[in-house]
Write the structure tokens for this entry.
Amino acid sequence: MAVSAWEQFLARETRGTIADLVCKGSLQLNAIRPSLSVLKNMSRGLPIGNQETIEIVECPNDGAKLRVPAGRNRILVSCPTSKYQFILKTSADTAEPPPKPVPKQAKIGRLHKLKAWLTS
């Protein structure tokens, strides 16, 4: 398959453009690299986000650890794993555990009925 002169020209221009862009990008990266290392060194001792305003609580239904904002009077917390919702007081002076959930009745299927009949 023969390549036309136009296709050869476009291929050379594309390769040249790509090479120019790579060179410019690496030059810009080298120019800002010292600033990035200074910022990285400065941020090592700083807390990430609002760690001092986060409280870790356990879901009373399944015991999953949940992050909730601290310092609120009352907050509605929803557990993503068990979908259980409860109201939590997160102020620092009142540390009451959330109420235990009322267990749902287990569905009694054929196997449970058979097991109950066999063990009775």
In short: The mean pLDDT is 76. The chain is about 40% helix and 15% strand.
